[in-house]
Each structure stands twice: as structure tokens, then as C-alpha cells.
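BUG: 3D viewer hangs when loading the predicted structure for this chain

Environment: internal workstation, default settings.
Expected: structure renders.
Actual: progress bar stalls at 90%.

Input used:
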Amino acid sequence: MSIGATAWRYTKAMPGFIFGTQAELMGETLRNSKKLHGWKNMGTQIGDAFETGVKAHEAAVAKNGGFFKNMLNDFKSIFPDIKNGVKSAGWIAKAKNASTLSRLWAQTKSVFKVLGKRMPLIGAALTLAFELPNIAKATWNEGVLTGAGEAGKTAVRLGTGAVGGAIGSALIPVPFLGALVGYWVGDKIGQFIVGKSYSEKQAEAQNPQTAQANPQEFKVDTSQIPFGGGTVNDEEFQKLQNAYMQATNPESMNFMNYTIPQTSPTNANKKVDTLA
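C-alpha cells produced before the viewer hung:
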């Protein structure tokens, strides 16, 4: 199979990872593989687990009669899965003569177990909540093609997030946390692949980085500094000198500005007579 055909096959399988349970199947397959082989050939283990999820999606599409019917079935199956899980947990707890509190706890765990399998769907809902306004803005301002491009970027992020969540759930042995961390890492990888969104680019265009934000580009405008616009003439130099002396030695300015008092001739003669 050619590279293009393989890429298209994997692309078609992504909705199963995002909206269905194929990501959980991939994570479970990888967990079992890791128990057998440890961290040896981890790349191959991840690839085999991913292939298992792809094949499961293709089988589900064939069973449900098409791609879109399968997606609809993925959505419709969420609440029945929760309902069945709660019932099963209640029956098991009742059979063990468990207390009411223990039975409620078992039923609560069953709900989280179902939601854990649909972690990519939860992540997709949160991502879409932020990205739909961006897609709408791009479509309104730049046209349908730009909007479609932004939708494609979002789809890539959803796909990498789902696969990342599956890997995280297998490599981090903490329920829900592993899937959450893995989804976050996968989403960041998707952002790196597709680049910045339309809204991010618009924000940067409207608010370019200032000189203070990048010290390497910081420049001083000497025209805004007193006496910094060119050569200093005599008057400006005198002002600078006086300002410097006043700042360093205020008494020096008093000496420079001292004016000898004028005495009348009579007073001068009196001083001379006194000295004589």
C-alpha cells in the first residue's frame, strides 16, 4: 500500500478514535503488550496497538453500514453504555451482599469507566468549544476555503489528541490521569504540526511585539533625550555643566552664583580708618 493510501486509511479511522472506543482499545492493547515486552521496541508496540484500533474501526463501519452511521452509533451508545454499566455494577454488589454505600460507589466507578473510554470525545468537545468560534471567524472574514483549512487543523489536533490519550493511558498507570496527560501532549503535537490558528495570527497582527518584549531589538531614540539629538552647543554645554555641579556639589553652585556686595565709599573709608 502506498504512503498516500496508508495516510488516507488512517485519516478515515480517526473519527473512531475521537468519537468511538478505538482509542480505549488501542490503550488496552498497548497496556497488555507492555506487560509482556516492557519498554522494549516501544515504537513498534505503539504502531501495532494503533493498527488494532484502525482495524476495529473499519470492522465497526462495515457492521453499522457506513462511516456516518457508525459515527451516529458511537454517539448513541454512550448513554446506554453508562446505563448498562450502572446496572451491572449494582447487580454484582447486590450479589456480594454489599452495603448501600458500597453499591453506590461501585456504580459511580462504572460511570467513570465508561467516560474514561470516551476520554477523546470529552477532549474533542472541549477543543471544539474553543475552536468553533475561530473557524466561524475565519470563514466570515476570509471565505469558505480558509474556514475549511481551520477545520482541518482542528481535525488534526483531535486525532493526535485521541492517539496521545490512548498512549498516555497505557504508559501512565493512573486511571484517567494518563489519558488526560496523553491527550494534552497529543494536542500540543497537533498544534505544532498545523501551526497557529487564524485567530492567533490575527491577534499577533493587531498586537505586534513591542521593543520591550524583545530586548535584542531594543533601540534608544536619542531625539527624545535632552541634548541627545546631535552636537551640543555652548549654551547647552553650560547648562549640562551647571546641572552636573548642582547635583554633585550644591554648594559649588552657591559659590559660582555668589555676588560681591557693593559698599558705599563712606563705609569703605570707615573700614580703612579702623584698620589704621
